[in-house]
């Protein structure tokens, strides 16, 4: 079966694998925990704002590919979910770490991958990262691809192919496979980030104004000593 994940499915799958490795004590994940993992502002590019219904739909799609589904034997009244990446691909730990970060953060250089996979697998050298990428690229069908080097860049970027062919100009074309939902989530995220940035700027401006006012008062007091 050919696997073509939309951006939401890729995010859900990546989040499940990441949490399995980094926080096994909280895995499998409830729907609420999975939504929070997908919407993290750290280690996610782009940042999304997904709802439970959207994540549930993505899980249904992943279940059709046998990549994820309800956890079996979970001792809990709350339904929990798990990935089945290993059952489908039989990855080693290096391949799993690299593919997971590509799913969560999009195209990256080997240097970026080495730093961002550290919690899942510690690569000693960039050659080790390249080796894992080569194994993904040599799969049939290939699961990763190298992108043309961008102007001024010293390293080429790599992208996963679980979402289909790679657009050479921008990497994986996330928007085209799920345009309306992707735009909606990106717009909500961008608006939220902009509001936070504006609030921070307002606070900094208020602090600067107060500092200037204090300095003026101190200067006026200083001048009076010489009048």
What summary fits the major beta sheet? 3 strands, antiparallel
Shape: elongated
| The CATH H-level homologous superfamily of the largest domain | Winged helix-like DNA-binding domain superfamily/Winged helix DNA-binding domain
CATH class of the largest domain: Mainly Alpha
Indicate the mean pLDDT: 85
Pairing-aware structural class of the strands and helices? mainly alpha
Q: What string gives the helices and strands in order?
A: HEHHEEHHHHEEEEHH
Measured as a percent range, the helix fraction is 40-55%
- As for the number of domains, it is 2
Radius of gyration over alpha carbons?
A: 23 Å
**How far is the first residue's CA from the last residue's CA?**
89 Å
CATH fold name of the largest domain: Arc Repressor Mutant, subunit A
Could you explain the architecture of this structure?
- The longest helix is centred in the last third of the chain and has 46 residues, at 179-224.
- Residues 169-190 have low confidence and may be disordered.
- The strands form 3 sheets. Strands 1-3-2 form a 3-stranded antiparallel sheet.
- The chain is mainly alpha-helical.
- A hairpin with a 3-residue loop joins strand 6 and strand 7.
- It folds into 2 domains: 7-173, Orthogonal Bundle (Arc Repressor Mutant, subunit A); 178-227.
- It contains 9 helices and 7 strands.
């Amino acid at each position: 079966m050919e696997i073509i994940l939309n951006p939401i499915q890729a995010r859900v799958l990546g989040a499940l694998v990441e949490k399995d490795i980094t926080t096994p004590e909280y895995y499998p994940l409830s729907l609420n925990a999975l939504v929070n993992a997908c919407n993290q502002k750290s280690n996610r590019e782009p940042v999304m704002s997904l709802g439970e219904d959207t994540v549930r739909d993505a899980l249904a799609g992943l279940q059709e590919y046998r990549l994820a589904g309800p956890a079996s034997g979970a001792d809990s009244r709350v339904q929990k979910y798990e990935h089945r990446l290993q059952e489908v691909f039989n990855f080693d730990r290096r391949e799993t770490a690299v593919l997971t970060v590509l799913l969560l953060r999009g195209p990256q250089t080997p240097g970026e991958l080495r730093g961002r996979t550290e919690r899942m697998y510690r690569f000693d050298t960039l050659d080790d990262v390249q080796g894992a990428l080569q194994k993904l690229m040599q799969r049939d069908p290939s699961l990763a691809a190298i992108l043309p080097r961008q102007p001024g860049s010293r390293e080429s970027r790599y992208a996963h192919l679980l979402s289909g062919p790679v657009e050479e100009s921008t990497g994986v074309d996330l928007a085209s496979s799920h345009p309306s939902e992707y735009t909606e989530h990106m717009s909500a995220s961008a608006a939220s980030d902009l509001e936070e940035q504006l609030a921070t700027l307002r606070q900094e401006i208020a602090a600067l104004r107060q500092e200037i006012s204090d300095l003026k008062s101190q200067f006026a007091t200083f001048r009076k000593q010489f009048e």
